[in-house]
Write a structure and sequence with these properties.
The complex is a heterodimer of chains A (185) and B (138). Chain A has 5 helices and 7 strands; from the N terminus they run αβββαβαβαββα. With 138 residues, chain B is an all-alpha fold. Chain B starts with a helix and ends with a helix.
């Protein structure tokens, strides 16, 4: 072969390159393996206006829910829930506490039956000013919500400011109140 | 006794089902559209949309109620004449790129598409140089 031999220093460097690349992949793999997986699908609508919707009433005691109910004045809490959802029952005392603190809470009842809902509210209390019946998860999709319960903070101009995935736990009530306060600006 | 145990086990097996809602599935969750062309379009779209709750499955594969509701919505909107890609975009606007199984070229994903092209170009250049040099040296 007439090919000139490359200088020794270059050769040595290229010799270690594959091992270096391999080590890089091992590190990437370990990072991916050890980092806890993010299983929640967050809504992409934070900072955007609440989508247009109008839901019929879910129980006779409370009016239905529409986008217009979130306009004007103070921030409100939109709670996506269902009577058949166990964490929603766990969340009930916290919603009651929020209502006690003067928060206006509106409910979106997903795939629910009136009788079941009435039983659920009789047992766990009814913190909702309005409840809309979302029988085919239409509003849930419009909100970019992927589970139950989920809570959205909507400010006085009808803009979604915060999404809380999963039940509001007792130690999170303060945080929600702070977020509601922040949404006033 | 054994019968009692069996009944108990069966009861436990049924329990997760009881935790789900009692509403019947949405009208078009398990029913195809009457127009086969529209159904084909809906099916193609549903196979490339992720179920947001059972995240390893497409909404066409999943029996979760939320996936049924999503199929219902996709079918109704296709039936109303909406473009499948517009429906996909509507969902991506709400759930992010994660909801779609069809990869798109975006600010974060372009290296995935560019890397194979760059590697091919690099390999072609190396090969050409070697072949030309090999030919010249012989």
């Amino acid at each position: 072969m007439s090919e000139p031999t490359p200088p020794v220093s270059l050769r040595r460097w290229t010799l270690w390159l594959p091992l270096g690349v391999f080590a890089g992949f091992v590190i990437l793999f370990l990072i991916g393996l050890l980092r806890p997986a993010e299983r929640e699908v967050r809504s992409a609508l934070i900072g955007k206006p609440l989508p247009e919707f109008a839901l019929p009433q879910a129980i006779p005691e409370r009016p239905g829910l529409a986008t217009a109910d979130f306009r004007g004045g103070k921030p409100r809490l939109l709670n996506v829930f269902a009577s058949w959802c166990v964490p929603c029952a766990v969340e009930a005392p916290q919603l009651a506490a929020l209502k006690q603190a003067g928060v206006e809470i509106h409910g979106v009842a997903v795939r629910d039956k009136r009788e079941d809902l009435e039983r659920f509210l009789a047992r766990h209390g009814n913190p909702f000013a309005r409840i809309g019946a979302d029988e085919v998860s239409k509003v849930q999709f419009a909100l970019g919500s992927s589970g139950y319960p989920e809570s959205f903070i909507v400010d006085g101009r009808g803009v979604i400011r915060y999404q809380h995935i999963g039940e509001i736990r007792p130690d999170q009530v303060e945080m929600i109140l702070t977020k509601l306060k922040e949404a006033e600006q | 006794m054994i019968r009692f145990l069996c009944a108990l086990l069966l009861g436990l097996a049924i329990m997760p089902v009881a935790a789900q809602d009692k509403l019947p599935p949405a009208p078009y969750a398990y029913r195809q559209l009457d127009d086969p062309a529209k159904e084909a379009r809906a099916k193609a779209l549903m196979e490339t949309l992720r179920c947001v709750q059972c995240q390893g499955q497409s909404i066409a594969d999943s029996d979760a109620p939320i996936a049924g509701d999503m199929r219902n919505q996709v079918r109704l909107r296709i039936d109303a004449g909406e473009d499948p890609e517009a429906i996909r975009q509507w969902l991506v606007d709400r759930y992010g790129d994660y909801v779609s199984y069809a990869p798109r070229v975006t600010a974060t994903t372009w290296p995935l598409f560019a890397a194979p092209l760059l590697l091919l170009a690099f390999a072609f250049m190396v090969l050409r140089r070697r072949l030309i040099r090999g030919g010249g040296g012989a």
